[in-house]
Amino acid sequence: MLIPLHRDLLPVLAAARREHITILTTMYGKPFTVDGFSQWMRDAIRRAGLPLQCQPHGLRKATGRRLAEAGATAKEIMSILGHTTLAEAERYTEEADQIGLAEDAVVKLEGHKANRFTQTTSASLGNSIKNEGQSK
After folding, report:
1. Does residue 122 sit in helix, strand or coil?
2. Structural domain for 65, as ranges
3. In DSSP terms, which residues pair with 25 in a beta bridge?
4. Is residue 105 domain-resident?
């Protein structure tokens, strides 16, 4: 997979000391294995005092959510996260779509002119109206 670097990451990588193309390496300068990286992350999570539920996969999920909230399509999310089915990537867009659609609906309601003026003031909310000549 070829994934372009985010512009905010470029200066960080330029400032980092690297001896080869691999960015994260073991203390021996070799690329991590999947198991080795997982153990390295578990150790870092423990040292940081974070709950062990914090996992590298959570970073992937957070990226998917941020992409969806930025308006990325399911196929664009697939191209970044490496999902092999559209259904996997659509989980992110469906949730983001729901949030965006709900916000759009409230904006439309706020702009609707049919009920421009409220019938009660906020000061009277929750108070009962006392009628002088109550019906029997």
Report:
1. helix
2. 56-111
3. 31
4. yes
